[in-house]
Amino acid sequence: MAGVVLMACSPTFDWRTIMNNDKGYTVDLPAKPGTDERTIDIAGTQMKMSMQTAEAGHAVFAVGTVMLPGDDPQVQRAALDFLRTGLARNLGATPESHPTQIPLAAGGQVPGIEMAFSGKAGPQQEMRTLHARLVVHGRHVYQAAVIADRELPAEQLDQFFQSFKLY
């Protein structure tokens, strides 16, 4: 029983609320986040994807944001498809996905997609599990994801995904 208590108090996950006003979201991350940005090609259009990531407990927690050139539903769908297929391709797997609701910080919700799957990744083709939520809100497409070398406890996934709110 003492081992269970020690795990619950483990400093591995040092949760902190991150408010990203530039990208329009708030989320709890388990460590101090880093940032990255790259250009991606979605349906023949160059777009910037910003990433905010934190590593803890053999897992990477990340929120990616793609700024769309407008609010065209066709471009929004293309961006969602790009992110969904990219995640699946990274692990060589077909994700299980279903509709979900993503909360808004001001109240209410918007429809999103929830995915979970496992597959092999990296140069050593090591097993990874991935949980992700994808959503379009205005001119942004968001990808909140957790990738780990083993299934994380539900409370860690819940902390991350339930805290993810859009402005």
Mean pLDDT: 90
Q: Specify the number of helices.
A: 3
Number of strands: 10
Indicate the proportion of strand residues.
over 45%
CATH class call: Alpha Beta
Name the overall outline: globular
Span between termini: 42 Å
Helicity level: 10-25%
Give me the CATH superfamily: Mog1/PsbP, alpha/beta/alpha sandwich
Q: Which structural class is indicated by helix and strand composition?
A: alpha+beta
H/E series: HEEEEEHEEEEHE
Named CATH topology: Protein Transport Mog1p, Chain A
As laid out across the biggest beta sheet, the strand order is 3-4-5-9-8-7-6
Taking all Cα atoms into account, the compactness measure Rg is 16 Å
Q: Just name the CATH architecture.
A: 3-Layer(aba) Sandwich
The profile of the biggest β sheet is:
7 strands, antiparallel
Count of spatially separate domains: 1
The parts where pLDDT drops under 50 for at least 5 residues are 1-10
Protein name: Transmembrane protein
